[in-house]
Design goal:
about 325 residues; alpha/beta; Rossmann fold; 4-stranded mixed β-sheet; globular
Length: about 325
């Protein structure tokens, strides 16, 4: 008898790739969606899954949803680098996690995998990548997203103490086919359209979405209760990342390093410029402040315990670019 699996956030980038994979493997997959959800990302498997209507921010809407469910992947969350959506970040990332985890425990769900964020781990350095045991230090940047993902992990710990079997996975900066909303893919699109004449001085840990899906499923199967697993790959500076994207896309543009202090001046001047739309939407000060740090991570624990595979990050960049180009999504 197939396991009954429920996925929250199944219409998002990572969630949709996971739902597609589980459906392909023949599992009884239920995707929690809102009535307003865009189901485009689930088109290839929509006839093989069950849609369940509910909203993670409403505990009442989740009543009965988890009954008879064996496994839950909690992926629903709001990723936003700024301050305009602070109330929504709290509502979705904190209260949503509490509602899903509590309902799972009360319904007797056998195991939950909670998908977190590298911002819940912290800020490292170019020389010392962080691992799962690193103390959280992201509060040195005023980023509500990081705070809410950090709190959500404390809710996981609380629910485990109450008897829930839960494992945490922490994806890094995720590229890959299927990134409809241009999460990490925005940087590919903007470099391709010559909208990034500069790069921040920090770096980031890059991983492909299919590796994230593999490792997330492995965490459900054999991750240790209460443990967190960083799902990452190559640690690359934004200079290296920009150069790789230019090599893959065949686009050449002068690109210069931009320290944070100079970025603030340029950002201010752009407010009065008619050409501000010619610069990437990624150029906001919150996002640039984060990108000026080194979000470098050590994923050896996931390789060791979850048998996580790895590949050169350029392969993921190329795969993502080709996926966008085939669908004419780059203009």
């Amino acid at each position: 008898m197939a396991k009954k699996i429920l996925v929250t956030g199944g219409t998002g980038f990572i969630g949709s790739r996971l739902v597609n994979r589980l459906a392909k493997e023949g599992h009884d997959v239920h995707a929690l969606v809102r009535s307003s959800s865009d189901l485009t990302s689930l088109e290839e498997c929509i006839d093989r899954i069950t849609l369940v209507h509910g909203d993670v921010t409403s505990a009442e809407s989740l009543e009965g949803v988890f009954d008879g469910v064996d496994e839950v992947y909690h992926i629903a969350g709001l990723t936003y680098m700024g301050s305009r959506k602070n109330p929504m970040l709290e509502k979705i990332n904190v209260h949503g996690a509490r509602n899903v985890l509590s309902a799972s425990r009360k319904a007797g769900v056998k195991r939950v995998v909670h998908v977190s964020s590298i911002t819940a781990v912290g800020i490292g350095s170019a020389r010392k990548p962080l691992d799962e045991s690193s103390p959280w230090n992201f509060d040195r940047i005023d980023l509500e997203y990081a705070r809410t993902k950090h709190i959500a992990e404390s809710i996981v710990a609380e629910e485990i103490r109450n008897g829930l079997d839960c494992v945490i996975v922490v994806p890094a900066f995720v590229f890959g086919a299927g990134d409809l909303n241009f999460n990490a893919g925005r940087i590919i699109k903007d470099i391709y359209n010559r909208k990034m004449p500069f790069y921040p001085l920090g770096g980031v840990c890059v991983v492909d979405v299919e590796i994230v899906v593999d490792a997330t499923i492995a965490a459900m199967q054999r991750g240790r209760t209460g443990e967190r697993y960083i799902i990452g790959g190559d640690n690359v500076s934004f200079r290296e990342l920009s150069q790789t994207i230019m090599n893959v896309t065949g686009v050449r543009q002068m690109s210069f390093p931009l320290p944070l202090w100079a970025a603030k001046i340029i950002r201010y001047m752009l407010n009065f410029s008619k050409n501000r739309n010619k610069i990437s939407k990624l150029f906001n000060m919150t996002m640039f402040a984060v990108a000026s740090e080194f979000l470098y991570f050590d994923s050896s624990k996931a390789r060791r315990e979850l048998d996580m595979r790895s590949e050169p990050y350029e392969q993921s960049i190329r795969r993502t670019f080709e996926w966008y180009r085939e669908r004419q999504m780059l203009d």
